[in-house]
């Protein structure tokens, strides 16, 4: 028979079931409904492999100790047994490992008894827990895996659908909690981090919102109209910190080289977006006695170049006028 241990915070509600198997004939199991609970075999002792098989057959696995509170609870709740209890740690490839998760036993989580693990006779690859031992109760000791002890099992509360697949389900005594992935929060990780709504002025924006408008992992791409250049990041992402990955970029007009008035001439410009930038137009004229050679006006293009060639003012030669059928004689000043 195996016994269920009540959760820390409440008395159990038990379901009495009789189950049999070829591996554990005649086993009668006591199981608590609807919570992570501990169970142990109160008839028969098992090698570590047999104990794990027992736990996986009727429950979830050999118990994985997560904190000191859990150790104290087990030591208080379990009956004393002279051979003690197997738990779900084993040396794999020379490294102590939680077999249920495949995670390495960290230094912070170690709970070895004094002088342990000692690997006596070089064959102690499994771990027992001292329950209600007069000295060092609740501590761990490495043992040969073929020795027979009680199986200490647990039944998991965590299921794949819990935590909305947006967090890690962590077993607790009699229940579970969700450790949400970055960007999510709430008891079941259903809530999503929100960033400030982006409202760029004069900057085209195209956004993608996988979890809702301007929320975690939303991305917004920015471009500029023809004749303008972007200053700043082209893509912004909503981070778990509720901040955007960069500031909203700006679009500035493409600049053209500064134009000068031709010698003996004048320059008159109009600027839509700033001096000598995209859309600027400049008109040329010459002083009396001079004639314009080249375009009367030039415009700054989206490529940052001016239309037409440079304008010049040419002097009229003596002896001919502008009305002369042969045309005036011109020369540069």
UniProtKB/TrEMBL annotation:
Annotated ranges, domain EGF-like: 154-190
Domain C-type lectin: 33-154
Membrane topology: Single-pass type I membrane protein
Any one GO MF annotation of this record: carbohydrate binding
GO biological process: cell adhesion
One Pfam family this sequence matches: EGF
Protein name from the UniProt record: p-selectin
Subunit: Interacts with SNX17. Interacts with SELPLG/PSGL1 and PODXL2 and mediates neutrophil adhesion and leukocyte rolling. This interaction requires the sialyl-Lewis X epitope of SELPLG and PODXL2, and specific tyrosine sulfation on SELPLG. Interacts (via C-type lectin domain) with alpha-IIb/beta3 integrin ITGA2B:ITGB3 and alpha-V/beta-3 integrin ITGAV:ITGB3. Interacts with alpha5/beta1 integrin ITGA5:ITGB1 and alpha4/beta1 integrin ITGA4:ITGB.
Subcellular location: Cell membrane
Organism expressing this protein natively: Junco hyemalis
Family annotation (SUPFAM superfamilies): C-type lectin-like (SSF56436), Complement control module/SCR domain (SSF57535)
Domain Sushi: 193-253, 254-315
Summary of the function given for this chain in its UniProt record: Ca(2+)-dependent receptor for myeloid cells that binds to carbohydrates on neutrophils and monocytes. Mediates the interaction of activated endothelial cells or platelets with leukocytes. The ligand recognized is sialyl-Lewis X. Mediates rapid rolling of leukocyte rolling over vascular surfaces during the initial steps in inflammation through interaction with SELPLG. Mediates cell-cell interactions and cell adhesion via the interaction with integrin alpha-IIb/beta3 (ITGA2B:ITGB3) and integrin alpha-V/beta-3 (ITGAV:ITGB3).
PROSITE patterns: C_TYPE_LECTIN_1, C_TYPE_LECTIN_2, EGF_1, EGF_2, EGF_3, SUSHI
Cysteine pairings via disulfide bonds: 180-189, 195-238, 224-251, 286-313
Keywords: Calcium, Cell adhesion, Cell membrane, Disulfide bond, EGF-like domain, Glycoprotein, Lectin, Membrane, Metal-binding, Repeat, Signal, Sushi, Transmembrane, Transmembrane helix
